[in-house]
Amino acid sequence: MPVYTSIARIALLLTIIGILSAGLWPFNFKPRNRVNASPEGGLHIDRYGQLFSTETWQIDHSTNQFSVEFWFQPAAAGYGYDSSVLSFSHNGNLDFAIGQSGPDLYTAVLSPDANGDAVFRKLWLDGACATSRPLFVTVTSSNEGVSVYLNGHPSRSFSVTSLPGTFSGVLMLGHTPRGDQPWSGDLLGAAFYDRELNASEVMSQVEQWRARYTQDLAQQDGVFALYDFRATTSDRIRSLARYGPDLIIPPVFCVLNKHVLGWPKTWNRSTAEDVVENIAGFVPVGFLFVIVCNHTSRKPGYRALAIAISIAALLSLAIELLQVYLPSRDSSLCDLLTNILGGALGGALGLAVASWRKSAFRQIAL
Question: Which one is the CATH code of 35-248: 2.60.120.200, 2.140.10.10, 2.60.40.420, 2.40.37.20?
Answer without folding.
Answer: 2.60.120.200
